[in-house]
């Protein structure tokens, strides 16, 4: 069955992501205009720190090399170094952008822009003053515009580009506004942070670009797996101890009984695959199983140890409902996204998508046992409340995709009029 996710979903995701990306580029350019007033000030109006001899020093509060009378000229040179580097780099940026994957090119550009923006701000703390940082930042900033325009241009026809790009282009002003506000927070106390914080923001946006410019649905499934895997791995590492503490079995029996959770996971994974193949609803299948998993976890904690039969049944049921979505997302969903037409035939996309989805899920796998260790001293009930909350969050991240799938089913059920 063809995916009911309309091309508009992908277009909207590309618009949103590229808007965010280029907002961060302009956000990181703005601080220098805010900080200039702090690099050369009227020191006579300021109170010097205790113990500082300023009898022959009227520029004690200024920053080298802007403590001289030619500071305005130096400001102009500083701006010019960035802009000339940007102008020269732009001629080469388009050439590289055509030959390199846009995701890698944009991610690299944002990470490097973040690095050099932070280095310029670290001059406040390290007293390192070099135009090289600003020149390199100018070169790295050229990676942004050609790449984001190419991303948007690939998804919108000529008939719609004018209006859409007119609205989308507001990222320039939004970035300038945010850059001014963020830099203004720190400029009077520690102007170095006026560069460091925007630098960290654009670097973080570069990480988002690397992981999520591959496919729009990738974000939701990755975050869903994070919480689903959190639950699964908490059971993997803590279930034998829970059985031993609550049911009072010895270590061997507790270990043997805990394997039933994985047995249920085998059945759940197969069932999830069959249902999603028949319905074409990968997200809906995962969401329904996770919705049932939440109350089952609650019941297992409260009544699952009343008898051996109840324990066996609840473990099989919980294992199937928890591990079914986990198995479906890491296999069929990864394959669907990695071979989706939106990736334009990228032969390496499948391995990349699989790595991104499972890598995000592995964060949850690491957090689950950690949280269990921190929470369990307050009682096992609280551990299960944490697991139930994770299941609900996993469902919420799939809600948009579930809505799209249900929409697709509803359209297919409505008879088409014959004209």
TrEMBL record:
The cross-references to SUPFAM superfamilies, in alphabetical order and at most eight, read: MFS general substrate transporter
Segments passing through the bilayer = 9-27, 73-92, 104-126, 132-156, 168-187, 193-214, 221-239, 259-276, 283-303, 309-329, 349-371, 383-403
- What's an example Gene Ontology biological process for this entry? phosphate ion transmembrane transport
Entry-linked PROSITE patterns: MFS
What is the annotated localization of this protein? Endoplasmic reticulum membrane
Identify the GO cellular component terms for this protein. endoplasmic reticulum membrane
| Matching CDD domains | MFS_SLC37A1_2
Q: Which reaction does it catalyse?
A: D-glucose 6-phosphate(in) + phosphate(out) = D-glucose 6-phosphate(out) + phosphate(in)
The residue ranges of the Major facilitator superfamily (MFS) profile domain are 208-419
Superkingdom of the organism of origin: Eukaryota
Q: Give the matching InterPro entries.
A: MFS, MFS_dom, MFS_trans_sf, SLC37A1_2, Sugar_P_transporter
Q: Which UniProt keywords apply?
A: Antiport, Endoplasmic reticulum, Glycoprotein, Membrane, Sugar transport, Transmembrane, Transmembrane helix, Transport
Topology class, membrane: Multi-pass membrane protein
One molecular function GO term is: glucose 6-phosphate:phosphate antiporter activity
Similarity comment: family membership? Belongs to the major facilitator superfamily. Organophosphate:Pi antiporter (OPA) (TC 2.A.1.4) family.
Kindly provide the name given to this protein in its UniProt entry. Glucose-6-phosphate exchanger SLC37A2
Organism equals Takifugu rubripes (Japanese pufferfish)
């Amino acid at each position: 069955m063809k995916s009911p996710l309309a091309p508009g979903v992908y277009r909207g995701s590309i618009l949103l992501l590229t808007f965010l990306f280029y907002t961060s580029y302009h956000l990181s350019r703005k601080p220098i205009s805010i900080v200039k007033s702090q690099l050369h000030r009227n020191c006579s109006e300021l109170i010097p720190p205790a113990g500082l001899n300023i009898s022959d020093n009227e520029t004690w509060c200024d920053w080298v090399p802007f403590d001289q009378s030619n500071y305005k000229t130096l400001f102009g040179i500083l701006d010019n170094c960035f802009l000339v580097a940007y102008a020269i780099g732009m001629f080469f940026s388009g050439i590289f952008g055509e030959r390199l994957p846009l995701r890698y090119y944009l991610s690299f550009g944002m990470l490097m822009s973040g690095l050099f923006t932070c280095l310029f701000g670290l001059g406040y703390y390290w007293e390192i003053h070099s135009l090289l940082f600003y020149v390199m930042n100018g070169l790295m900033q050229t990676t942004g515009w050609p790449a984001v325009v190419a991303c948007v241009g690939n998804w919108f026809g000529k008939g719609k580009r004018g209006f859409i790009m007119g609205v989308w282009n507001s990222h320039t002003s939004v970035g300038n506004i945010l850059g001014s506000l963020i830099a203004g927070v720190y400029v009077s106390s520690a102007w170095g942070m006026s560069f460091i914080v925007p630098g960290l923001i654009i670097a973080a946006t570069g990480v988002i670009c690397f992981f999520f410019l591959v496919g729009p649905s990738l974000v939701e499934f990755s975050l869903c797996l994070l919480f689903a895997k959190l639950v699964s791995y908490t059971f993997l590492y803590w279930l034998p101890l829970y059985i031993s503490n609550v049911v009072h079995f010895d270590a061997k029996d507790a270990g043997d009984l805990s394997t039933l959770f994985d047995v249920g996971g085998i059945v759940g994974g197969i069932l999830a695959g069959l249902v999603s193949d028949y319905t074409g609803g990968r997200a809906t299948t995962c969401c329904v199983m996770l919705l049932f998993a939440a109350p089952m976890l609650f019941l297992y904690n409260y009544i699952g140890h009343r008898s051996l039969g109840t324990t066996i049944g609840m473990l099989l049921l919980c294992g199937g409902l928890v591990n079914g979505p986990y198995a479906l997302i890491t296999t069929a969903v990864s394959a669907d996204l990695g071979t989706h037409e939106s990736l334009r035939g990228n032969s390496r996309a499948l391995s990349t998508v699989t790595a991104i989805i499972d890598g995000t899920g592995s964060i949850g796998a690491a957090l689950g046992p950690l949280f269990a260790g921190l929470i369990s001293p307050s009682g096992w009930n609280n551990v299960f409340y944490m697991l139930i909350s994770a299941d609900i969050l996993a469902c919420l991240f799939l809600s948009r995709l579930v809505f799209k799938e249900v929409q697709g089913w509803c359209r297919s059920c409505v008879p088409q009029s014959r004209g």
